[in-house]
Amino acid sequence: MVNQKKIIKDLIKKDYKLERILDNSKQCPFLQKPIIKEEVLFYELAQSIVGQQISAKAADAIWKRIIFSSKDKKEFLKVISNSKVKWAREQGLSNRKHEYIKSIANKIIYKEVSLAKTENLSDDEAIKFLSSFKGVGPWTAEMFLMFAYKRLDIFSIGDIALRRAISDIYNIEKDDFKKILKISSNWKPYRSVVCWYLWEYLGV
């Protein structure tokens, strides 16, 4: 079992500024064991696609409407596979995002692809594999690896919220990618854990 207290202690030892955000009273979900089932993995990937390029609040509202009628993740996979554009638009989902998640749902149902295949890939290989799906870019793949696979050492430089939090804590420009990457490299091998606490810090 992963020891959160030890991880937090080690991270603060490497970077004292993290003491401001790391909080043992909040359990990081990335330290849990992932559930490697196609319907669970699809659910997480679909949520990441829905969340692309819109505010967390808007994404959450749309996502709640999309999953409302599904009793579980297995049914959700079928619902998306059989869904129509009109239904998607009524939930607030764009035509394009609906096309992306429906295409992936159908490929899983007809066993043309397996998201569980990601389990045996390195982080870089997994991002390359996931990016082969239409509508999945580096940010979406990185979110999927964190939230679905609980990979502990992912950092998403494309995530605006993360850059904003780092900018605030370290007093640097949020678009200074070079400095941000250098700072985040100090958090290895637990960059994902720090990312989660940074989001918590911002309240997103």
Short description:
This protein is an all-alpha fold.
User: How many separate helices?
Assistant: 11
Overall shape: it is globular
Q: What is the succession of H and E elements?
A: HHHHHHHHHHH
Specify the biggest β-sheet.
Answer: none
Word description of this protein:
It is a single chain. The protein is an all-alpha fold. The protein has eleven helices and no strands. It has helices at 4-14, 38-50, 56-67, 73-82, 85-90, 95-109, 123-130, 138-147, 160-170, 177-185, 191-202. Helix 2 packs across helix 8, helix 4 crosses helix 6 and helix 9 packs across helix 11 (191-202). The chain is globular, with a radius of gyration of 18 Å. The model has no long low-confidence stretch (mean pLDDT 95).
